[in-house]
What does this fold into?
Amino acid sequence: DAGVIQSPRHEVTEMGQEVTLRCKPISGHNSLFWYRQTMMRGLELLIYFNNNVPIDDSGMPEDRFSAKMPNASFSTLKIQPSEPRDSAVYFCASSLALGANYGYTFGSGTRLTVV
Amino acid sequence: GQQVMQIPQYQHVQEGEDFTTYCNSSTTLSNIQWYKQRPGGHPVFLIQLVKSGEVKKQKRLTFQFGEAKKNSSLHITATQTTDVGTYFCAASGSARQLTFGSGTQLTVLP
It folds into this structure.
C-alpha cells in the first residue's frame, strides 16, 4: 500500500484565494482525520470522518474552512477565502476505525503558505 | 478530547546519552500511543500501550504506561543522531479520537 497520499505537497497562494487540499486514505481504513500543525499551536485536530460521515468538526477554526469525504477513497479540505494566518502544514491521517486501539497513519502533509 | 501534557518541550543531548520524555494526564487514559516526527516529516506511529503498568521495548526505546494509567514515558538509551525528531504522545479517554501532546523536540549533538 502506498500509504496516505496527500496533494499538493506545497501550496503558495495569495490571500483571498481558494485553496483545496486533497487526501487519499489507506484502502480499508474507515476513519479519516485532518490535522493542522504550526509552531505555536502544535498538532490540532480540525475534523474527522467515520465511514465517510463527518463526526466532529469542532476543531475547524472558522466558516472559511470546509471538508468533504464523498467516498471512502477521497477527502478534501477547502479554505475559502484563505488568509496569511492559515499558513501551516496540513496533515491527513487514516486509521482502521474510530477508537483508541488503532494507530494513525499520516500522509506527508501539505505545506500551505498564504501571502 | 483528552488533554495530555508533555515534558520537556526541548531536549538537547550528546550522542550516546540517554533521553526521556514524559506524558501526563489528570484523568485516566484508556490507552496511549507514541509517535515520532522527523524534521520536515510527518508523525509516524511507534507503539500503543493499553495495560496498567505496561512496559514495551523497541530496540533502544522503552515505553512505559503508569500504574494509574495517567502517565507514560518514552526512554531512549544511548541516543544516536538518527533519533533526532519530535516525539509525541497521543491519548484518548472517553473520546474516540486521539489528542496529541505538544511534543518533545530531541536534538542529538554528535
Notes: Chain B has a mean pLDDT of 93. Residues 1 and 96 of chain B are 8 Å apart (CA to CA). Chain B touches chain A through 23 residues (CB under 8 Å). The two ends of chain B are 39 Å apart (CA to CA).
